[in-house]
Specification:
Largest sheet: 9 strands, mixed
Shape: globular
Helix content: 25-40%
CATH class of the largest domain: Alpha Beta
CATH topology of the largest domain: D-Maltodextrin-Binding Protein, domain 2
Distance between the termini: 93 Å
Strand content: 15-25%
Order of helices and strands: HEHEHEHEEHEEHEHHHEHEHEEHEHHH
CATH superfamily of the largest domain: Periplasmic binding protein-like II
Structural class: alpha/beta
C-alpha cells in the first residue's frame, strides 16, 4: 500500500511539472513595479530650502526664514552657520534639493569658488548685495576702552613688521602699550574668526591692509611688489596673540566676558545684540554705530551678500519666493524688520538695482 501511495504522489508531481512546463513562461521582471505618480528626482522637492555660509549673515537669513515660513505655504528654510569659505564649498558641491540652494557671504565670491561651482555643473549663480556691516573690535563693558588706528591694529596683529633697515622682524609687541603709550597696558589677546571666515578675509583686507599702507616701508613695497605686500600685510601672527575662536561670533562674545583682557573681532550685528555686555572700540575716533557705518565714516565696514543657485529652482519649491521675501522693502529697507537685527541697509537706488537682479533671478556673468 505504501508503495502505491509513493507512486501516486510521484505521478501527481510529474504531472504538475509537465503542466507548468507547458504553460506560458513567467518572468517577474514583466510585472510592473508600484511607482509614485512623479519621477524619482521629484522626491527632492519635499526638501526644505537649505542655506549655509557666513555667521554674520545667518541671523538675517534666520529672521527672513521664520517670516517666510509663517507667511507662506512653504516650510521655514534651514539655516546653518558654516563660515563663508565653508559655505561656498558646500554650495558648489552639486545641484539638487538635498544640496544648499543659498550661501550667505561676508565677502564676494572668489574666482576659484566660481570655478569649483562650474566643475559641478553649477553655472547660474545669482549675486545679491543685501546690505552693509561693520567689523568691530569689541571687549567687555567693564574692560578699558580702546581707540585704535588701522596702523595700530596692523602693528598688533601682523606676523612680521618692517625692521627699518629694509628687512623684516618677528612682531615683538606683547602689550597694546608697546605700540603706543596711549593704549591700555593689556596683553594683546585677540579672539577672531578662522581662515575660512569671510569676516576674517574682510578684516584683513580692510583693517590690516589699510594699516600696512600707513607705514612708509609698506607703502613703498605696495608699489614695488604687490604680491609680497599682500602676503606681509594679510598674514596674522600665530604666537598666541590672535586666537582662532570659531565661525560663530556668539562664542567670541561669550569668551570676551570670561577674559576681560581680551578683545574680539565680530560683526556689528553681534555687537548690537550684546550691548548690555560688550562695547566696540573706536577706529580713528569714530564709534561703531549704525549711522557711522551707514555713512561710511566708520573705517572697517563691508558689504554682505547672498548667492542663490538658480538651477535649484527646478528642485526646491519656494526658492524664488524666499529671495523675493528677503529683498522686499518690508524686510531689508530702512524701516524693515532686518534693521532691528543690525543690518545696515543699502541706499534706495542700490536696493532697486539689487532687487531687480534678485526678482528676475539674473545670474552673474
Amino acid at each position: 500500500m505504501a508503495n502505491i501511495k509513493r507512486v501516486l504522489i510521484a505521478g501527481l508531481f510529474a504531472m504538475g511539472v509537465a503542466l507548468v512546463g507547458c504553460g506560458p513562461r513567467i518572468d517577474l521582471a514583466d510585472f510592473e513595479q508600484p511607482v509614485s505618480d512623479a519621477p524619482v528626482f521629484m522626491t527632492q522637492q519635499a526638501q526644505k530650502i537649505k542655506i549655509v555660509g557666513s555667521s554674520t549673515v545667518a541671523p538675517f537669513s534666520m529672521t527672513v526664514a521664520e517670516q517666510f515660513g509663517a507667511a507662506s505655504s512653504y516650510a521655514s528654510p534651514i539655516v546653518e552657520s558654516t563660515g563663508t569659505g565653508g559655505g561656498f564649498k558646500a554650495f558648489c558641491r552639486s545641484l539638487g534639493g538635498d544640496e544648499p540652494s543659498i550661501v550667505n557671504a561676508s565677502r564676494r565670491i572668489k574666482s576659484s569658488e566660481r570655478e569649483l561651482c562650474a566643475a559641478a555643473g553649477i553655472t547660474e549663480i545669482i549675486e545679491v548685495n543685501i546690505g552693509f556691516d561693520g567689523i568691530v573690535i569689541a571687549n567687555a563693558k567693564s574692560a578699558p576702552e580702546f581707540d585704535l588706528t588701522k596702523e595700530q591694529i596692523y602693528r598688533a596683529l601682523a606676523a612680521e613688521l618692517p625692521n627699518g633697515a629694509g628687512g623684516w622682524q618677528v612682531n615683538s609687541n606683547r602689550f597694546w602699550s608697546d605700540i603706543s603709550p596711549e593704549l591700555p597696558a593689556l596683553p594683546i589677546i585677540v579672539l577672531g574668526p578662522p581662515p575660512t571666515s569671510g569676516t576674517r578675509d574682510a578684516f584683513a583686507d580692510i583693517a590690516l591692509v589699510g594699516g600696512a599702507l600707513a607705514i612708509p616701508e609698506m607703502a613703498e613695497l605696495y608699489d614695488r611688489n604687490l604680491d609680497l605686500f599682500g602676503k606681509k600685510a594679510r598674514t596674522i601672527r600665530n604666537d598666541g596673540a590672535w586666537i582662532d575662536s570659531g565661525e560663530n561670533d556668539s562664542s567670541i562674545v561669550r569668551m570676551l566676558l570670561k577674559n576681560e583682557n581680551s578683545v574680539g573681532v565680530v560683526g556689528f550685528s553681534f555687537l548690537e545684540q550684546n550691548l548690555d555686555r560688550v562695547k566696540g572700540a573706536r577706529v580713528n575716533g569714530v564709534e561703531p554705530v549704525f549711522s557711522q557705518i551707514e555713512n561710511a565714516n566708520y573705517g572697517i565696514s563691508r558689504s554682505l551678500f547672498m548667492y542663490v543657485k538658480k538651477q535649484n529652482t527646478d528642485f526646491v519649491p519656494g526658492l524664488a519666493d524666499f529671495v523675493r521675501e528677503f529683498t522686499q522693502e518690508d524686510s531689508w529697507g530702512p524701516n524693515g524688520y532686518l534693521v532691528d537685527k543690525g543690518l545696515i541697509p543699502l541706499t534706495a537706488e542700490q536696493r532697486r538695482i539689487e532687487q531687480d537682479t534678485a526678482w528676475s533671478m539674473t545670474p552673474i556673468s
